[in-house]
Write a structure and sequence with these properties.
Number of strands: 10
Oligomer: single chain
């Protein structure tokens, strides 16, 4: 079922949604560059040269050069960003608004002084709206979640791979636990991985602490975490699918922060290396999904589980036949600070894996206190696994899962390593149920 975007039918109106945002990203960022006097001076000195320095489409450049705000809006511009451009040219909001209506500035001012434009005659034509709702033909195909991967994302694992230490006695047992996984992944390469992870003070410091971040950009560089960036490929995103997911999840009342530019750290790159090995280019697109598990309050397991269910609905409503995997990363038990540093709880970790397979809904009710007390202060990362688990079709009894691999090992640096692969087997014509 396609997402409801009937707001596009309101006459004379461009709603700035995730699709428009992706289309106009560089155009709007150009406008933001004009918030300094130096850049405004450079732009006014040679508009074309300044525009050519930005990766704009020619249609966007021409809209700006022609002072055509309607064309700029069609090309993804947003009025609040374009206002920075208009201010650079000495235009007021009324001048800009008037230019889009075919009025002179004085005519527009007179209209506003008279009470503004009436909504009468400016609503959606009922025949147009009825036709839009009547045309609900199902898409030829849709995206499908084919599996979930759960794994720790220990930074030292990445360092061991990068420095050629995987065959050393300390590390060999860890990497042997992923040999099956690489073979399985090679036979089941997805089109897209939605990878749930947490940033480790690499892109998000205390100046900005978002709870859920959906990466909607086209590319993501590798973060320098203090030792230099890992020598692995950058990430290619999927802005179209990400925009669709954003629309669906926010309409389902999950508040997201949408990020077009950010560097990704070991939380995302180590799982990719474990599953795909040493490659020149990752074999699929990756949509980063960051969860704050660094500063309390952090989201509950129950909320993460519900988010996973909504995520499955979002993905399955995308009208392209993509093979999508959802990965949950982080954990298992570990504590990196204080007198309890080094805490590991094998029994609790393995009980978590048992319940993740057989009783995910019950597991989602585990309170934060239990995670911290039993799995250590950093063991709270395990709530992210519940997002991937909630995206499986057995949760709402519209399919089944198959456990393909399970692995647990202590230690890897300061952490217990857990790993699980679940194949998703939805029944035909069984889309995710709305909560």
């Amino acid at each position: 079922m396609a997402l409801d975007k009937t707001y596009k039918l309101v006459p004379g109106t461009t709603v700035f949604d995730a699709e428009q945002s992706a289309k106009g990203y560089h155009l709007n960022q150009f406008c933001m560059s004009l918030m300094t006097a130096e850049n405004r001076e450079l732009y006014l000195a040679d508009e074309r040269a300044y525009l050519d320095a930005w990766p704009l489409r020619e249609e966007q450049r021409q809209a700006l050069l022609a002072r055509d705000l309607n064309a700029a809006m069609r090309e993804g511009g947003n009025i609040y960003f374009l206002a920075k451009w208009g201010a650079t040219l000495g235009l007021s909001f009324q001048q800009m608004a008037g230019s889009m209506t075919g009025m002179t500035e004085q005519e527009y001012r007179d209209m506003m002084a008279g009470g503004g434009r009436s909504v009468e005659g400016n609503r959606i034509d009922h025949a147009v709206l009825d036709a839009a709702y009547a045309d609900q033909s199902p898409p030829a195909g849709h995206a499908t979640i084919t599996g979930a991967v759960f794994t720790s994302h220990v930074p030292a694992i990445g360092a061991a791979m990068d420095l050629g230490k995987t065959e050393e006695p300390y590390w060999r047992p860890v990497f042997e636990g992923y040999e099956f996984s690489r073979g399985w992944e090679a036979e089941n390469v997805p089109d897209v991985v939605l990878l749930v992870y947490n940033d480790h003070a690499s892109s998000f410091d205390q100046s900005l602490i978002p709870t859920f971040v959906l990466g909607t950009g086209a590319r993501y560089p590798i973060a320098d975490e203090g030792y230099g960036p890992r020598p692995v490929p950058g990430i290619e995103g999927d802005p179209d699918l990400a925009a669709h997911i954003a629309h669906s999840l926010i309409r389902d009342d999950f508040d997201l922060t949408l990020v077009n530019e950010m560097a990704v750290d070991h939380g995302l790159t180590v799982p990719l290396s474990l599953m795909f090995g040493d490659v020149e280019k990752w074999p699929c697109k990756v949509i980063p999904f960051h969860v704050n598990v660094v500063q309390y309050p952090v989201p509950s397991g129950a909320r993460c589980f519900r988010l996973g269910r909504a995520l499955r609905k979002a993905i399955e409503s995308y009208d392209k036949p993509l093979n999508v995997q959802v990965w949950g990363t982080g954990g298992m038990s570990h504590q990196l600070q204080g007198p309890r540093a080094g805490l590991i709880n094998r029994a609790w970790d393995n009980a978590f894996l048992d319940r993740l397979i057989a009783d995910p809904a019950g597991l989602s009710q585990v309170p934060h206190l239990e995670y911290v007390e039993e799995a250590g202060s950093e063991g709270i990362e395990l709530v992210m696994w519940l997002i991937a688990r909630g995206a499986m079709s057995d949760v709402d009894e519209t399919g089944e899962i198959e456990v393909r691999h399970r692995f647990y090992h202590v230690p890897a640096s300061n952490t217990a390593v857990g790993h699980l692969i679940l194949e998703n087997h939805p029944r035909a014509h069984a889309p995710a149920a709305k909560e």
